[in-house]
Each structure stands twice: as structure tokens, then as C-alpha cells.
Write a structure and sequence with these properties.
The structure is a homodimer. Chain A is mainly α. The first copy, chain A, has one domain: Winged helix-like DNA-binding domain superfamily/Winged helix DNA-binding domain (Arc Repressor Mutant, subunit A, Orthogonal Bundle), CATH 1.10.10. Chain A has 6 helices and 2 strands, in the order αααββααα. Chain A has helices at about 10-45, 50-55, 60-70, 85-110, 115-125, 130-145, and strands spanning about 75, 85. In chain A, α1 (about 10-45) crosses α4, α2 packs across α3 and α4 (about 85-110) packs across α5. Chains A and B meet through α1, α2, α4, α5 and α6 of A and α1, α2, α4, α5 and α6 of B. Chain A binds a DNA duplex through α1 and α3. Chains A, B: GO terms for molecular function: DNA binding; DNA-binding transcription factor activity; protein dimerization activity; transition metal ion binding.
DNA sequence: AAATCAATTTAGCATGGGCTAACTTTTTGC
DNA sequence: GCAAAAAGTTAGCCCATGCTAAATTGATTT
């Protein structure tokens, strides 16, 4: 069965994949600002060592990435000090947290296990359009207020 | 509101992100074998020029990628000739096509526009666990057979 | 205050996945 | 059958994202 997806025209393919590549470029940025925001809440500050531990990468990698985020205006940091979000970084973190929560809640509303919902949300959140996110949100809401 | 996601323990974070990085490493491979399979069906063969056009990249990039896929055992090709899937490549393409269709159908079942469903499916499909995929499939089925 | 330990940074490397420009091979059209 | 066009390949470049090893800085402890 599986009702035959509308085949995108050739011309659309290229655009689709270009947008996907862009999306991927933002993923690491989003994961970092989200995690930095979490750390500031949970531990009072965001240290490179904590980021390294949570992402499962080396401190050197964190350093690299933080430099990129700083270059791109999402964080500020001084040598040997902890890491701060700029306004842009905070705004992005807020957006990401909200989006993550909506995706997570949606997966839970569908009946998925918390562990799986958490993992899948982490992957899916970066690839959900505003429209789809809104549909997810409404669906969860409907389930909560009693179908 | 937004029912408070279970916070993964610190130890789980690293594993989550390691798996996400793995998932990303497979995305391009999956997109390529899927597209190669499509081209063989649609045009009788998969040429580098068609892949380049559909992905919106240069022929040189396609060449690079095909070399990697060949190294990894998913495709076979001879210089200046078209590209073939190995058994492993075909199996992966089949799996991806099915998964893509399930995600697409699910988004459609949720009421999303075909264009948006197609784009979001392309991003989401690589990040859906077997469990979530099964829930998607059942949901779509339920909607079809009349709530 | 010095020594030690933890955290951070730097240097140098690899791979993936893009690019352009130049070149070779294959296909096509006369 | 040859010339031009199309397709494919190669070389050399770039950036993102990872790594290890070594150097440096900051914090702690005696």
C-alpha cells in the first residue's frame, strides 16, 4: 500500500538537499547552545569540561566548536573561563528547548517509551518545519485534553 | 506545561550524541543508495550527472561520494560507466525507501501538506528508531481503516 | 609559596563532504 | 569517421568536526 508519495520534480530535489545540508550545519550549533543553557541552569555555569563530558567528545573538540560559535555570535568566552550565551545564543537556545519539548511530548503522546522518545527527539528536532511542529503541538494538546 | 521530559543522566548524554553522530555519518550513504535505486527505476540507470543534478552538487562531489560508497561496499562502478548497487546497497535502499514512505505517509496522515511532508520526511527518516517507525506505521494504518 | 592537579588551550592530524579548474573519455551529430 | 558536446575524472583547495599529545593556566592543598 503506502499511498505513493508525490514524487518531487527534479528541480525540487536539489533545493531539498541543499536545505538539508544547511539544516545539518545548524545541528551542532543548536545542540551546543541548548546544552550550554542547560548547564547554566543545572550547574550555575557552562564549563568546557562539562560540555565535553555530556557530548562525549574531548575538551579540544569543545574548544574548537566554542570558537566557531563565538565567531558566529552565539556565545562569548574568555580564556580559561566559563562560557556564556549571547542574546542570539539565548534566543536560539530558548527556541530549541521549546521545539525539543514539543517533539518529545509528541512522541510520548504517541505512546513511545521515555528513553526512545528522548533519543529520537534529539535527532528529529532539527528536521521539523514550523508547520509540522505546530501539528505535533496540537496533536499532543488534543490527546491531553481528552481526544 | 509541556510535561517535563525525563532528564537523561549525564552518562546517557554522551551515548546519545555518539549515536547521533553515527546516524549522521549514514545519512549521505542512505540518501545516495536511495537515489541510485530511484534513478535505476526511473531512468534505467544511475549516472553521476543525474545524481549531481538531483542532489544539487557538482559531478566532482558525486565522484568523491561514490568512491566512498564503493569502498564501503554499497555500490560498484567502472570508470565512465553508470553506477550499480551491490546487494548490501540494494538492501539498504529498500530499507530506506520503506522507512521514508512510512514517515511520509505518517506526516500526511497527520494532515500535513504534501510538499512539507516530503521535505520533513527527508530529514526525519534518518533519525527514527525502529520503535518509533512502528508507531508511525500503526498510526497511519489506523487513520486509514477509519480511526 | 610551591607543588600538584584539573582545566583549558594549542598544534598537528584525519575524515567527510563540499567546491573549481583542468583534463580525459565517451557519446553524438554531421 | 571526425569534431563537438556531454560526461566523468583528477588535483588541489576549503571548512566542519572529530582526535591525540603537549603546553599552559588556574585552583587546591599542604
Amino acid at each position: 500500500m503506502a499511498g505513493g508519495a508525490v514524487l518531487p520534480t527534479k528541480e525540487n530535489h536539489a533545493e531539498t538537499f541543499a536545505r538539508l545540508r544547511d539544516a545539518h550545519a545548524r545541528e551542532v550549533t543548536e545542540d551546543y547552545v541548548e546544552m550550554i543553557a542547560d548547564l547554566i541552569v543545572e550547574e550555575g555555569e557552562a564549563r568546557a569540561v562539562s560540555l565535553a563530558e555530556r557530548f562525549g567528545v574531548t575538551p579540544a573538540t569543545v574548544n574548537n566548536t566554542i570558537k566557531r560559535l563565538e565567531r558566529d555570535g552565539f556565545v562569548s568566552s574568555r580564556p580559561y573561563r566559563s562560557i556564556f550565551l549571547t542574546e542570539a545564543g539565548q534566543a536560539l537556545a530558548d527556541k530549541c528547548r521549546e521545539r525539543h519539548q514539543i517533539v518529545y511530548d509528541f512522541l510520548i503522546a504517541l505512546g513511545l517509551d521515555a528513553k526512545i522518545a528522548e533519543f529520537d527527539a534529539e535527532g528529529i528536532e532539527h528536521h521539523v518545519s514550523a508547520e509540522t511542529l505546530e501539528v505535533f503541538r496540537k496533536f499532543t494538546e488534543a490527546r491531553k485534553t481528552g481526544d
